[in-house]
């Protein structure tokens, strides 16, 4: 895999899992201004390698690989490894698998708010999650640049600079049970990530006093499912 996986999963002979997100600005996945506009991010798992299993996608912090070689991403830093994770991307290299150079390959870090780090011949770390308004999350400031990312230090630092926020949020990471696309329950999620958006109640039954632009985020449930281990 020579390029980052969809959603910023780190490259490598066993690529890292991509993340799923909801953002305010469109653009290519790794466009920095678009990445900054993310108000929900669900993390991906780190890739496994010959000597170690990758870490599942985490909540506020991504999980390390089984042997702690590849570190998980956090709210303010990418996971540490041979190639560190970055804002919105898992760490990785484009060295590929081959019979005579198998030992040269790496796994890829999981993507997320900050991606996990990769480690030579060992599993990589998972990415971290972010929800604007969720306790423990740390929001970037609008003035951040790709090479100089800064974070909110005043007020509620969990709230995105846009002002959009969510209430009564829950993050289930890749080590916990969650509902799968087919309606069954699983620990983490293997395969492609997905997002489900459902209404809490029938908006058509709201009285005429309802103001539709007022904090519309209160009236939807966003289900974003995190990756477990990638084999």
TrEMBL record:
Q: What is its main location?
A: membrane
UniProt keyword terms in alphabetical order:
ATP-binding, Cell membrane, Disulfide bond, Glycoprotein, Kinase, Membrane, Nucleotide-binding, Receptor, Signal, Transferase, Transmembrane, Transmembrane helix, Tyrosine-protein kinase
Q: Does the keyword Plastid apply?
A: no
Q: Which Pfam families match?
A: ALK_LTK_GRD
Topology in membrane = Single-pass type I membrane protein
Please give the GO cellular component terms listed in this UniProt entry: plasma membrane
What EC number(s) does its UniProt record assign? 2.7.10.1
Occurrences of domain ALK/LTK-like glycine-rich (ranges): 3-200
UniProt cross-references to InterPro entries, sorted A to Z? ALK/LTK-like_GRD (IPR055163)
Name of the protein in question: receptor protein-tyrosine kinase
């Amino acid at each position: 895999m020579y390029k980052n996986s969809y959603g910023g999963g780190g490259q490598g002979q066993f690529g890292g899992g991509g993340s799923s997100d909801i953002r305010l600005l469109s653009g290519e996945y790794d466009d920095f201004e678009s990445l900054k506009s993310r108000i929900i991010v669900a993390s991906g798992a780190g890739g496994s390698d010959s000597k170690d299993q990758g870490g599942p996608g985490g909540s506020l912090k991504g999980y390390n690989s089984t042997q702690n070689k590849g570190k998980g991403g956090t709210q303010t830093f990418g996971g540490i490894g041979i190639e560190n994770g970055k804002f919105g991307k898992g760490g990785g290299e484009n060295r590929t698998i081959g019979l005579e150079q198998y030992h040269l390959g790496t796994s890829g870090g999981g993507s997320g708010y900050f991606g996990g780090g990769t480690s030579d011949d060992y599993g990589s770390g998972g990415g971290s999650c972010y929800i604007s308004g969720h306790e423990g999350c740390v929001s970037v400031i609008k003035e951040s640049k790709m090479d100089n990312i800064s974070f909110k230090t005043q007020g509620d630092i969990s709230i995105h600079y846009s002002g959009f926020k969510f209430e009564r949020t829950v993050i289930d990471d890749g080590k916990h049970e969650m509902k799968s696309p087919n309606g069954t329950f699983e620990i983490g999620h293997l395969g492609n990530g997905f997002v489900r958006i459902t209404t809490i109640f029938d908006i058509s039954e709201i009285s005429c006093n309802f103001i539709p632009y007022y904090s519309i985020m209160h009236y939807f449930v966003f289900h974003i499912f995190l990756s477990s281990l990638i084999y």
